[in-house]
Amino acid sequence: MRSSGSGCAATRARLSVLLLLATLLSAVSTVYAKDEPKIAVKKLKSPPTNPSYFSGSNIVLFQETESPRTLWRSPDGGATWDEVKDIDPEKSFALVMHKYDPDRAYVLTRDHVHWKTADKGKTWKEFDTDALTSDFSYSMGRWMDFHADDPDKILFTGMKCEGPFCEETTMYTTDGFGEKAKLLRASTQNCVWAKSSPIFTTGDSDLDADRILCIVRSGMFSPPDENRLFFSDTYFKALDDDKLDEKEAKLTGTGPVQGVTSLLEVQKFLLAATSSPSKAEMALFVTDDTKTWHRAIFPQDHELLQTAYTVLESTNYSLQIDVRSSKRTSAPIGTLLTSNSNGTYFTRNIEHTNRNSFANVDFEKVTGIQGIFLVNQVENWEEVEKEGAPKKLRTKITFDDGRTFEEIESDDDTIHLHSITELSNAGPVFSSPAPGLVMGNGNRGKSLKKFTESSLFVSDDAGRTWTEGPKGPHKYEFGDQGSILLAVKYSEESDVEEIKYSLDHGKKWETTKLPDDLSILPWTLTTTQDSTSLKFLLTAQTDSKEFCVVSIDFEGLHESTCKQSDMEEWYARKDDDGNPSCIMGQIQKFERRKKSAECFIKKEFKEPVTETSYCDCTDADFECDFNFLRDGDECKLAGPLLVSEEDCKADDPEATFKGSSGWRLIPGNKCKRTKGDQRDKQKEWKCSDAKSPPSESNGEISATFTGFSGDFDQFEKLYLDDDKTIIARPISVFDGAGDVFISHDHGRTWKTPKELEGKDILAIVPHTYFKNMVFFLTTKRDVFYTTDRGKSIDSFKAPDPLDRGRDESPLSFHPDQPDWLIWHGQKCTGDNCYLEASLSKDRGDHWPTTIKRYVDRCEFTGSKAYRFRDESQILCSARKHENKDVEGNPLQLLYKNSTNGFEVALDHIIKFALMAEFIVVASENATEGTLSALSSLDGKTYAPANFPHNFQVPLKNSYTVLDSSTHAVNLFVATELEDSRHYGSILKSTSDGTSYVMSISGVNADDGWFVDFEKMLGLEGVVVVNTVTNQDSDSEPKNLQTKISHSDGAQWSFLPPPATDTEGKAYSCSSRDGDAFCALHLHGYTERTDRRKAFSSESAIGLMFGIGNVGPILGDAKDADTFMTQDAGLSWTEVKKGSWTWSFGDQGSIIVLAQRNTKTKSVTYSLDRGASWHEQQFYESEVIISDITTLPSGSTQSFVLWGNKGKELFTINLDFSGLTDKPCVHDENDPEKSDYELWSPQHPLQPNGCLFGHKNWYLRKKNDRKCYNDGELQKVYSSDTCECTREDYECAFNHELDSHNYCTLIEGLPAGDPEQECRDNPEAVEYHEPTGLRRIPLSTCKGGNFDPERVFKLRPCPGHEEEFEERHGVSGVTIFFAVVFPIAFAALVGWWVYRNWQGKFGQIRLGEQSSLDNDSPWVKYPIIAVSAVVAVVGALPLVASSIWRTVTSAFGKLRSRGDNGGRYSWLRSNGPRRFTTRDSFARGRGDYAIVDEDEGELLGDDSDDEAQGHN
């Protein structure tokens, strides 16, 4: 077919590769007789890519696919070929044709320098994109986006790389790459011109010229649900405040939406698809001007799922989308939907369309004719869905744009055609611009048969009637506006020796043999995009396993050119009497050659002209409107009725409005309106038909009780992410579990699916990445599952029974492909049983692949998020030999990519773990008896973890990989193994996961090696741990203290205790900031019954709860009270005496507390983030509450209480939605009017509030507003980049914080020679002392005065002391003025104070009124200055050596400590020394002044309410 499209092979794997190949070179032509086409054959040793025609010409380009990738050009449609000499074939990578300029093309390299042509490939010039060509999977083949009006404006998708990490970036040119490309924007996933389509317009010529839209990622490894859509009219230029001139698209019409995954231009529409975290559902937003967006609304029973919808070839007036409606992925079935004229409301065209697993749909429009398209429909869809039966397909055609469909026939027989899902050629399947000519491979009968059993059928009346052509399947093409039909037999062997052609619309076929007894395996048959040429290209493989391109030229077959008498008028549709009839309200007339004429049109590159006349509107021009379904001659309401904003504002249910009649004019229909009523005339409806159910807002909180009978102890429960679906079942510790119950209304009602009734469900396993999918494992091979949150239940048979003695789940899941599964089953041969891993790519329908035998574990490690490894990569740990022996049969780590079998990556491993982008492996060194850690990014190569010096891990110790979402591995290493005394150290890696530094030691762990480590959800880098303080004691229980870090583990502090408890009483100790003797301590992860319960919620930004006590150490849990923080742990408040469970609702606007394991009939709640609390009775008698839960996102206003009433388990839905029916509104232009405030977390050590180099702002509902959050709040509302400070750095490798918080070299490790820098560079005058610092991987800071390489003293290089002194010395004049002037000024002020102080010094007089106020600034500050005189005089002995430090400190800079050891610190103790206050750190901006040893201990006094230090 024509080169405008790209294809893939129908059913054979080999063809799927070869189909991409297209043209071959060289030149030896063989010319045949005048009555046969001329055929020229070129042979190659390397296969070519698909041929690319310059539009409107016979000039063709192609590349060889194997290195060297030579580019070839033909000026005559393939008869002759010339090698393009201007291009280096060793560097060329991809050929890109300009979409709108017929003279331009580009050859890209993988580097930043490429080639371009502006004369159809005659000459080529280099151009520079200043960025590497992106190799991200979603950008392959989409590197360039062209402006539809200005061919010089081009966007280029490239990438910038640092080591193995690459980030996609977009470059642009406005001069056709005359100059080097400029940066448009970094961190992009896709950018497009608003004017990417000739018929799309913003309505403003200036915006059409420059507007660009970009999907922007929040970080290098950020998930897709954080992507945002921005637009700019100034090429995203940088503004003065380091921000970009960009705006976020308001996809909802009023606000932005996160999770934008793709942008697609379709005719006059621009589409943005969005996804939600851990959900397969997607939303589609549509605009026809980039200014106003609408969410596409589908019929209520059709959800939009990832990989389950396909945007089809659409028209200028509507969108057509096929949505997968079947649950069985091995045999997908869809529903075809068509939109209204602005692309927002979709209605059904036809059900049960045929799809394949690649989301291809059997759908194609007849080119150039309005309203005609063909589809394949699954006839036996019920058997396919329920039983997995093979599909029976029938071909249908529509002549009214999908309103009605009919069979296609040949000689009164029904025929069926193979379509898109079984491509055997490139380009469109059936039609071309040739008027009315359609071809296809198919068969007669009741349904579609195998492709190899098909024959070629031809229609010359746009699919109304068909004639059978050559037997067997063929590749086919159209030429000379349909005068020539060319066919080449399809084969899987190199046995095709002839071509066939017809010059009379397929009534008669001629045959011509290939020259020189050539036998070929055909690949692609193609011609010019407009099908007006007499020349064709055929690419193939020869019987000698070489490759060839065959040029077929019909130029000499007929000498005459068609005259007007050889032409006929052809109408796209005629009625039974042969008269022209209307299609889509119009009659289309074409002029084409008569089928019997012996001539060629010979009007190359001039497409046929259509003449159109319009018809009066009839009933056939109307279809059912949105949410109406056809029932005979009626359209009946099947969903909510649409009502305008102006109608039905009153509460009167009897009020009426004018609404849809149920009919609408088919989008794109051009019929002329006639007098009188027509089908789409609006009718009168009652408002009660359209309004949503009345608001349940009554100012009250409702409670709905559900009891569960049976002798059970507790619930097993599972939330399905943001949906209100809960799966639960009562369980008994001794008697097993009861039935599975599912609630779709957040616990108000419960029901057991009939498919699960009485089933022996062993375990409930949610999909790790797609939370709408859950698997129910039985004791046998039967596995039940749901893909729609329990609305329907399906099942499959596992290849092997599960191993009931194995703790881990038998299922592993792929992060991007929800239907890919790995099953770990127990395979037994006699008494020999082992674990075998099997692979399914259709959700268990088939298990064709055994991955590995004698495995320990297999996981999908490929992901679209990590470009540095194969997306289909699988990692397994398995025995070296296929037996169960342990001796001499170690566990190996093996990896498998899409192109190879398993390869060994490591020997002698123990376990591997996945955390963010890292693969971490524990390996044993049997010789040394030690345990090693290794890490990898690509899954193939592993680097050993470089632990700090002298940090050895014995073989019997353990690793725990902790939450490592900040692009560095947090690795817990056990250091104490005695039972009941487990603890260890947390080490933090560099961004590549290899070099580790000590973050904190003595961290508590339980006997299962779970660790008291928890990150605050929703905020970066806030971590809470519990540490063991009595590590040296073996005779007493562990004493625990809680510490918090706001710097991702770089620095730690205690939790500041509240001043008083809930009763206003003081605690037994006090400390403003928390210290080793008095702080707040919380019971952590190791003491949690439900491991899923967290201190915080991702939607309740800054809020955290905990159970604990105030004191020197953590006390007993039974004596604990309940505390909360509203500011991410900077300050805490006791909210309840005793141990309470908590839950966050309405994104932090509602907090509910329930007392655990204590009889009660009420809960406590707050509507203002804990500022005030209220009691609410939920039951008439006292019961025991074990837990309170809500959606994981915290986005609902209802909660579920779980508990027991005697022996009966129960749930209570507690609904707060009755308190208000007013949605909160954010007014960014009027902060006072807005229901929201902007809040930013603060760093305890940085007064500017920066965290990791940026200051994030979040929206939080104001405490005094009585409204609810109507939508998901944007995670980060805005962000400011900060200057770099000390807090953006942590200790470097082989350095650790000492007791004074200095980053010092680890004891026992020899210090490097700093003077080596001088020896390496003899001309150097000075060198810097080593810093011991490295940048925190998460930090995004820029600039600033703090540079760890410039903080320490400069030292002179040996032999350069005089030069050093000249460069940095201080003159005597400077010293004089720096010392004498302040002293003189202070003395004068002091004398003035003395003269004017009535009381004089040392005198006390009672009853007198001073004439000079002691608090007056004229008195207070001079007195301070007098004190300063003494200080300055006392410091004189130090001035000569540290005058520059004195000057620095005069500006209020923070002090730190330096000595000859090069130590450096923030002056916060991590040992027994008490911490200084945040106020003291607020006196500067994080810069450092070196403090001489002689200055003594700065924090020795109890200033700022501190006790004295303890060394």
Please tell me the overall pLDDT. Answer: 81
Largest sheet: spatial strand order? 28-29-30-31-32-33-34-35
Q: Unreliable segments (pLDDT under 50, ≥5 consecutive)?
A: 3-33, 1396-1511
The backbone outline, from C-alpha atoms, is: globular
Q: Tally the helices: what do you get?
A: 9
- Using only C-alpha atoms, the radius of gyration works out to 38 Å
Query: How much helix is in the residues?
Result: under 10%
**Alpha-beta content class:** mainly beta
The largest sheet is:
8 strands, antiparallel
Query: Could you tell me the strand content as a percent range?
Result: 25-35%
Question: What is the terminal separation in angstroms?
Answer: 84 Å
DSSP E strands, number: 103
Task: Give an account of the 3D structure.
The protein is mainly beta and 1511 residues long. The chain has nine helices and 103 strands. The strands form 28 sheets. The protein has an eight-stranded antiparallel β-sheet, with no helix packed on it. A hairpin with a 5-residue loop joins strand 97 and strand 98 (1303-1305). Helix 7 packs antiparallel against helix 8 (1417-1450). The radius of gyration is 38 Å and the shape is globular.
Task: Furnish the topology, listing elements before pairings.
Blueprint: H1 13-18, E1 29-30, E2 38-44, E3 52-53, E4 60-63, E5 71-74, E6 82-83, E7 92-97, E8 105-109, E9 113-117, E10 125-128, E11 132-133, E12 144-146, E13 154-162, E14 165-173, E15 182-186, E16 188-193, H2 205-210, E17 212-216, E18 228-232, E19 247-248, E20 260-266, E21 269-275, E22 282-287, E23 293-295, E24 309-311, E25 320-324, E26 333-339, E27 346-354, E28 363-365, E29 373-378, H3 381-387, E30 393-398, E31 406-410, E32 413-417, E33 438-444, E34 455-459, E35 467-468, E36 474-479, E37 484-489, E38 498-502, E39 510-513, E40 520-526, E41 535-542, E42 547-553, E43 567-571, E44 586-593, E45 611-614, E46 622-624, E47 628-631, E48 634-637, E49 656-659, E50 663-665, E51 683-686, H4 687-690, E52 702-708, E53 714-719, E54 726-732, E55 736-737, E56 741-743, E57 761-766, E58 774-778, E59 782-786, E60 794-797, E61 811-813, E62 821-829, E63 832-840, E64 849-853, E65 855-860, E66 874-879, E67 891-896, E68 903-906, E69 909-915, E70 918-925, E71 930-936, E72 943-944, E73 959-961, E74 970-976, E75 983-989, E76 996-1004, ...
Parallel strand pairs: 102-103
Antiparallel strand pairs: 1-2, 2-42, 3-4, 4-5, 5-6, 7-8, 8-9, 9-10, 11-13, 12-13, 13-14, 14-15, 16-17, 17-18, 18-19, 20-21, 21-22, 22-23, 24-25, 25-26, 26-27, 28-29, 29-30, 30-31, 31-32, 32-33, 33-34, 34-35, 36-37, 37-38, 38-39, 40-41, 41-42, 43-44, 44-45, 46-50, 47-48, 49-51, 52-92, 53-54, ...
Helix pairs in contact: 7-8
